[in-house]
């Protein structure tokens, strides 16, 4: 009896969980109604209570939601990937990469504020660190030549702020959908993965100056080579949920190339 009471005292009420998660009791009740997050028990007072298992599931829901997934897609991911620890490890790798990027942006803004307060000259390199797409300049030039970088750089600088934001949103949404498909257990040559590979192909086609840019789009060698690079380079693999996610993208891109290029 005492053990049972002890377990119950570890449960958190719906109000506590809503407050800690920055959401509302109404949202949590909705998650319960659609079968996404059931409470561990319902008290005699009718209140919902959540144990550690439910909190882990809620954490995964919030992470997937931050990646831009809708509730039906989140439910599918959770239903197909029962190993929460493995799934969270993939999320953790992605979050660490985001942390590095945000740390650079924070430092950049802090430097700008201090310079403005002191009436100092602000260096453009410092202001734009963490925002600047030129961080891979040398790598792009080494892989594809100076002309490729110059064209893509001119294309980027020629866009308005809203156009850049739209393009970045498109990029992030594509990465999030790749992660969701991999976690949902989709096969690389299946309909879902191949639709994503087509989106990836079209996305690359819209980047001027690169070997994949232009009306014809990426060649077979370039498209499959990028897939291999995603696996070989952790910086790129992190965009797709880590090693396993990058391998899924690579295999799907290869299957697409075999069929279409």
Average pLDDT taken over every residue: 76
How much beta, percentage-wise? Answer: under 5%
Distance between the termini: 67 Å
Q: Looking at the chains present, what oligomeric state does this protein adopt?
A: single chain
What letter string, H or E per element, gives the SSE order? HEHHEEHHHHHHHHHHH
Shape label: globular
Sheet with the most strands, sense and barrel status: 3 strands, antiparallel
**Main sheet: which strands, in order across?**
1-3-2
**Fraction of residues in helix:** over 70%
Main structural class:
mainly alpha
Give the tally of β-strands. Answer: 3
**Integer-rounded radius of gyration:** 23 Å
Query: What's the tally of helices?
Result: 14
- Low-pLDDT stretches: 1-7, 122-132
Descriptive keywords:
single chain, 261 residues, mainly alpha, 3-stranded antiparallel sheet, globular
Describe the structure.
Helix content is 70%, strand content 3%. It has 261 residues and is an all-alpha fold. Strands 1-3-2 form a 3-stranded antiparallel β-sheet. A hairpin with a 5-residue loop joins strand 2 and strand 3 (48-50). Helix 11 (191-205) crosses helix 14 and helix 12 (220-232) packs antiparallel against helix 14. The longest helix has 35 residues, at 84-118.
């Amino acid at each position: 009896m005492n053990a049972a009471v002890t377990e119950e005292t570890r449960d958190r009420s719906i109000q506590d969980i809503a407050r800690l998660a920055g959401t509302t009791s109404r949202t949590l009740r909705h998650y319960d109604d659609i079968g996404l997050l059931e409470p561990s028990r319902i008290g005699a007072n009718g209140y919902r209570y959540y144990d550690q298992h439910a909190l882990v599931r809620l954490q995964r829901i919030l992470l997937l939601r931050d990646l831009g997934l809708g509730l039906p897609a989140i439910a599918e991911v959770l239903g197909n990937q029962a190993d929460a620890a493995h799934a969270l490890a993939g999320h953790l790798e992605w979050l660490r990469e985001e942390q590095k990027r945000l740390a650079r942006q924070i430092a950049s803004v802090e430097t700008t504020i201090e310079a403005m307060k002191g009436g100092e000259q602000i260096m453009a390199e410092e202001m734009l660190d963490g925002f600047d797409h030129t961080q891979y300049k040398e790598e792009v030039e080494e892989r594809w030549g100076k002309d490729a970088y110059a064209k893509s750089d001119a294309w980027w600088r020629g866009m308005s702020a809203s156009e850049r934001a739209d393009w970045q949103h498109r990029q992030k949404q594509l990465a999030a959908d790749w992660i969701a498909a991999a976690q949902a257990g989709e096969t690389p040559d299946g309909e879902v993965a191949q639709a994503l590979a087509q989106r990836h192909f079209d996305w690359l086609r819209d980047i001027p100056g690169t070997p994949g840019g232009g009306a014809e789009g990426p060649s077979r060698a370039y498209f499959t080579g990028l897939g291999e690079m995603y696996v070989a380079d952790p910086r790129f693999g992190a965009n797709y949920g880590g090693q396993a996610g990058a391998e899924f993208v690579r295999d799907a891109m290869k299957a697409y190339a075999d069929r279409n290029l």
